Structure formats: C-alpha cells, structure tokens
Automatic annotation (TrEMBL):
Keyword Nucleotide-binding: no
E.C. number: 5.4.99.5
Domain of life: Bacteria
GO biological process terms held by the UniProt record: chorismate metabolic process
The protein's name in its UniProt record: chorismate mutase
Record's keyword terms, sorted: Transferase
Record keyword Endoplasmic reticulum present: no
Organism for this UniProt entry: Psychroflexus salis
Extent of the signal sequence: none
Molecular function via GO: chorismate mutase activity; transferase activity
Parent-protein start and end of this portion: 1 to 264 of 360
Amino acid sequence: MENRKEMKTWLNNLGLNHPLVIAGPCSAETEDQVVKIAHQLKETDTSILRAGIWKPRTRPGNFEGIGAIGLKWLQRAKEETGLKIATEVANKNHVELALKADVDVLWIGARSTVSPFIVQDIADALQGTDKIVLVKNPVNPDLPLWLGAVERLHDANIKNLGVIHRGFSTYEKTKYRNNPEWQIAIDLQNEFPDLPLILDPSHIAGRRDLIFDLCQTSLDLNYNGIMVETHFDPNNAWSDAKQQITPSSLDQITVDLKIRKETT
Ligand code: PEP
Ligand code: MN
C-alpha cells in the first residue's frame, strides 16, 4: 500500500494547536445545549466540536440519539463559533446526511469498527472524500480488525485519516471502563507511521478523575490529540454522565498538560 506517509498532512494543514483537542458532549441533546457548549468550548483549546447524534447503545432502552435534526444544531454551532464539527457515522445513510450537512470530521465508533461489512459500506460511501475520517479501535483488543478498517478506508482513497484509542472491553474488573492497551496503538502506528493518533480518555476511564493522567500518558507517547467528552452539566447528561467534564475542567487539564511539558 502506497502513500502511507501522507497521512499527517491534514493535521499539519489545519494549523491546529498541539495537542489537537476535540471536545463536546457524548450526545447532542437539544439545540440550546449544542450551541451553548460550543460557545464555551470556543474559549478553550478546542478546535473541533464533537457530538453524537446517532448513538450506538450496547443495550436498548437508553437514549439512542436525537437523529438527523442534530446536524442542523451542529451547523449552527459551527457558524456561530467557527469550530469544526464532528459526529459518529455507522452506515451509508449517516454518511450521506453528514456530508450533505458539511460535517468536517466523521468518526467510526468502536461498535462499527468490529464489522468489516459496516466499515466497507462506510468506506464506499466516503470514497475519495477530503473530509477527516477517524477510526476508533474495535471494542475488542484485535489489532488486525483495527488495521483492516484503516486499510478499507485508505483503499477507498480517503487521505485525511486518523485513529482514536478508546480502550478495549474486558471482563476483568479494572479501574477503567475500557482498558487502554498502549502497545496495540503503537503496533498500529508501526504499520501506518504517519497516521495521526488521538486518545479518547473519556471512554477509557468511564469516570472523570482518571482523565488527566490518561491524557498525560498519551502525550508522553507522542499522541497527536485528545477527544474528551464535555458537558456544562455533566451529571445530567443524557448519556455517559459519569465521564463527562465541564469546559473549565477541560481548560484546566490542557493548562496542566502544558505546565507538565514545560517542566520535564
Ligand atoms: C462516543 O464517542 O460517544 C462513543 C459511543 O464511543 P465508542 O464508539 O468509543 O464507544
Ligand atoms: Mn460517549
């Protein structure tokens, strides 16, 4: 496979802060919520606003996302703040709607990366796009499955690719909701040396108090960015309430990361 080296170009071309900060709520809930959090995040190091509108819940009965109407809310947030916008896509229909709404960053979630059929459908729908496409690791610690997803997208001539480490499911009792497996992401980078690597400490931790240390570890390992679930009222978030942090906590984390960097 050729041109694996071109992959960091989008990150450089965007002229974004290092680390790249993607932040926003787990789920878009209301128009006011999306617009309000966007304005708050605009005052932090955040470059890209994330919000899930189609939510892949492991078990039914929880909030499953607001649906396509949320795209309008994200568009408004982008118009008012200039932040780029990101959402999860899990099928061809999502991709078509997101492209029509000019979403800047589309990510493939852990429950989709596990399925070569789903990934191939998304890759076909995105064929040749210049949008940024980020691939979360699959739910299970399976490097070939993660690599295979990246290869399918790369083969569909999608150049602006990146990957997100969101931890791996385990039946063991650990302090994490999803175990980080740092070596798997390093092995992935050995195959695609210039693929931007982003950490999602929120879905790894499943709780707020572990987020700073996870971010620090990722920067020590030369990750290019972080994706952090952020809500102005985390306890009342409609999904993943325990792991979301406020914009001011996010701000403090990025300041502390910088201080740590300067003093080491
Ligand atoms: C999310 O980012 O809200 C999400 C559902 O993530 P994951 O696919 O990592 O579980
Ligand atoms: Mn979430």
